[in-house]
């Protein structure tokens, strides 16, 4: 008994759809197996050949029309997966245009890195601070945000001679080969940058991933000798054992509460959705042959960060999260960032070296921090030279965010430490009070 024509057609459509899905899955598996060789073309041609062979086998002994039908899903799958092999952005590095309010200088460091540098000299009429201040931004491997630039101008307005540079591969700095992106290279770049200033030891303010670089610099005696005083603000994990530490973040952030970011997203384009997704899952290495490093930087947009931006603000600020950057200035090297993070996860404990640090340091912790508290308190426990800890109420991970008086409060805490003056906030948590701090889930 034969099935009615409509049911036979439905069955064929279902089989065709399953064939398309199967060929697409084969293509993705081959992308992983071939490391995305030749922009995914090697995987695409292999999957296409497999589809053609399967279609010929299925069509054997059929009428001419029957022999053609198995090729329909092959053509559909080939068209669908071909979009993963076609670049939609330039494959050579496109640098953001210079900012209108500060000159972009490019320095070649003794490490071989060529970095974009921003200098905010002390404002006229203000007492000049004797020690230069170097800012290590978060990311890692992204541009210094416009929001951060505003904060640096505020510090310059208080007499600081402020320098910031974008890590190699991010912002307006030149790319490195993928294997050169390591946390050790970042520490060496900091030492080389301070040497390039020719002003002796510098005060250093490290934020987020920049705080990790600074922490590891304090554990390296040769680099630590170049640091006059250090502020470790909202650090991530300092080494492999710390990265494995389980714990809790601070008070609730705006993640899941703030409106979804708007604007263009690379992850809405099949090529970059596949590339970034497989890299994030660890199925492709950051240096994959599917997309070039430069292409990935050119493609990635601020909206691709998703809820990461919201996680840097308190839940109470979910409806008023500021725009951190402009589309023209934003630049993020996702592959290099993941590569550096992996080298941190793979590194042994630096606690023994950090325990010998003698560089005066301060730790800054946000009330609504998205960072694991044990990452922060681990530094306090390991580094005997941390002289004070400043728990910043009412702010999230991005403490100087332009809301209310948050910038001014952060600047007051920073100035008090760098000038060896009494702090406007209590020293909290203390080294002996870490356990109580963690129990209170502050």
Automatic annotation (TrEMBL):
Residues 132-235 form the AB hydrolase-1 domain. InterPro entries: AB_hydrolase_1, AB_hydrolase_fold, Carboxylesterase_BioH. The keyword Hydrolase applies. Residues 236-262 are annotated as: Disordered. The chain crosses the membrane at residues 12-33, 39-57, 69-89. Gene3D superfamilies: alpha/beta hydrolase. Keywords: Hydrolase, Membrane, Transmembrane, Transmembrane helix. GO terms for molecular function: hydrolase activity. PANTHER family: HYDROLASE ALPHA/BETA FOLD FAMILY, PEROXISOMAL MEMBRANE PROTEIN LPX1. This is Alpha/beta hydrolase. It comes from Microbispora hainanensis.
């Amino acid at each position: 008994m034969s099935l009615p024509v409509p049911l036979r057609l439905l069955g064929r459509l279902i089989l065709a759809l399953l064939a398309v899905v199967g060929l697409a899955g084969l293509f993705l598996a081959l992308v992983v197996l071939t490391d995305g060789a030749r922009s995914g073309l090697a995987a695409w041609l292999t999957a296409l050949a497999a589809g053609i062979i399967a279609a010929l086998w299925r069509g054997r002994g059929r009428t001419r029309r029957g022999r053609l039908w198995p090729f329909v899903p092959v053509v559909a799958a080939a068209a669908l997966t071909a979009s993963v092999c076609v670049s939609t952005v330039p494959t050579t590095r496109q640098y953001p245009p210079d900012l209108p309010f500060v000159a972009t200088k490019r320095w070649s460091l003794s490490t071989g890195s060529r970095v974009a540098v921003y200098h905010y000299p002390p404002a006229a009429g203000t007492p000049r601070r004797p020690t230069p201040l170097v800012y290590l931004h978060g990311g890692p491997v992204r541009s210094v945000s416009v929001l951060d630039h505003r904060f640096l101008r505020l510090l310059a307005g208080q007499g600081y001679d402020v320098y910031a540079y974008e890590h190699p591969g991010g912002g307006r700095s030149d790319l490195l080969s993928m294997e050169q992106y390591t946390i050790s290279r970042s520490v060496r770049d900091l030492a080389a940058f301070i040497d390039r200033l020719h002003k002796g030891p510098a005060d250093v303010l490290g934020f987020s991933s920049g705080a990790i670089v600074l922490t590891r610099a304090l554990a390296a005696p040769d680099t630590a000798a170049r640091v006059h005083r250090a502020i470790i603000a909202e650090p991530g994990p300092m080494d492999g054992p710390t990265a494995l530490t389980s714990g809790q973040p601070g008070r609730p952030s705006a993640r899941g509460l703030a409106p979804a970011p708007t604007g263009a997203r690379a992850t809405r384009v099949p090529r970059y959705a596949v590339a970034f997704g497989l890299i994030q899952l660890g199925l492709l290495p950051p240096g994959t042959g599917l997309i070039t490093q430069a292409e990935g930087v050119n493609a990635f947009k601020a909206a691709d960060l998703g809820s990461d931006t919201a996680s840097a603000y308190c839940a109470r600020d979910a409806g008023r999260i500021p725009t951190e950057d402009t589309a023209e200035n934003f630049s993020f090297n996702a592959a290099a960032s993941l590569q550096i993070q992996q080298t941190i996860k793979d590194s042994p404990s630096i606690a023994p070296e950090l325990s010998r640090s003698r560089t005066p340091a301060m730790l800054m912790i946000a009330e609504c921090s998205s960072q694991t508290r044990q990452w922060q308190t681990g530094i306090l426990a390991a580094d005997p030279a941390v002289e004070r800890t400043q728990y910043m109420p009412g702010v999230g991970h991005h403490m100087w965010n332009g809301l209310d008086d948050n910038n001014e409060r952060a600047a007051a805490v920073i100035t008090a430490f760098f000038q060896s003056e009494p702090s406007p906030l209590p020293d909290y948590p203390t080294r002996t009070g870490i356990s109580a701090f963690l129990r209170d889930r502050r």
